[in-house]
Here is the input.
Amino acid sequence: MRKSNTWLWLTLIVALVCVVWIKGIYGTTKSVITSQTAPLSEDNLFPAPHHTSYHMELRLDPIKLELHGRSVITSRNTTDAELTELWLTTYPNVMKDRATTPAPMSAYYSGFDPGWLTISSVTVNGATAAGEDLGISYRIHLPEPIKVGEEVTLKLEWKARIPQAAYRYGSKDGVILMGNFYPVLNVKDDRGWHTSINTKFGDPFYTQCADYTVRLWVPEAYQIAASGDILSIEAEDTGWQTMLIKAERVRDFALAAAYNYKMYHVKADDINIVGFFNGRFPEVEKAVLEQAVAVVKFYNRTFGSYARPQLFLVQGPMEGFQGMEYSGLIFFTDEVFNPRFNEQRRAYLVAHEIAHQWWYDMVGNNQLQEPWLDEGLANWSARKYLEEVEYRSVQGRSGKKLVNLEQALTEIHSKDTYLDTAYQGGESFWLQLEEELGEGQVLKILRSYLATYKFKTATTEDLCRIISQHSRTSMESFFEKWFKTH
Here is the structure.
């Protein structure tokens, strides 16, 4: 009897070990988010927002459409283990080949034209490091491990080409849009490194906030819009100009350069809103700026104050998107400024894209894993503005539409499904939460969400925890409807 019990216990132990081993290899299954789930520690993320800075020297040649760059990236190992490698995203390489470019073919007005980024030199803490070009990703093999708590200084020399394409990274008609144009550190957490992907839809990005100091050389004939403050402009005898740009605690850094553009300045509370437009339809441009002022004021009093001294609204040739958000800067496609463009759609776009300055920039999220977090909330925020400030009824109310929000961008295989999940589904979550708790309580939740995760990265678990903390009843059954595979 004793021998039989011993074998029984041994069998059970072996079975348990096997289960743990298999789950370790293949990952755990998805589960319903609960308010008791422990948060992911911000201190165990790399690169940590309060320890990371980018110093870049950029020379933009708008004739050759080339960008020469030098980057000095400093950070600290805030994880709980040594770092033996670093990963970067080099997003311009998604546009290297015709077969894989995410830009629609109609964006290439002179036939396919490649864009790319190559890194020619890498040093880490003064020592030369080997790099591995993996297309959209770049892997650095560290000459020495970076110990826990140790500072790391990464120096890069690189060159990028901007394609002749009407896209968020591209050029047309003397206008150059530069989103996600430079090498950026990937995020590492308890699950490992989060590398980017190439997708025809969505925003395949996950970045931490950092401080940026950028020195830009560009021909004098070009005006510049940028994430951050342009502190100085110095003309040179060569016909070029040098600009010093500084941006603190931004999620990313974007630029736009244009020939013969106009800048318009208006104020929203104490925020300088700058319109960077081509001047063809001044009445529409004026209307967009007036609406931007109203939107920023509404979000300031509804959610909490905008974090930056200014916000650039940039008009440009861009296909595939009608609007695209970056820290302190938004791209709007040319068609939005056409007087024949639907007025309510324009109002919605302005409100949606500005909402991303709260939900994406200030409160970040992993857009690869949880795209609903920022897109759904930007949709809902735009709806609130239109209904409460402009007194417009918003068509297509999807408050009863239940979808599985627990879908990563890699699990979504069409643009329609992406829009249905991240945008409409995410908005429906907030509309039903209003029905459950009331508008006043939802606004308290969002103010707490902003205050808690400002300049940080939030997850679905973090959001659900805050919702539970502000609810008088259990929210488990509500969460289960949205975060369980249907």
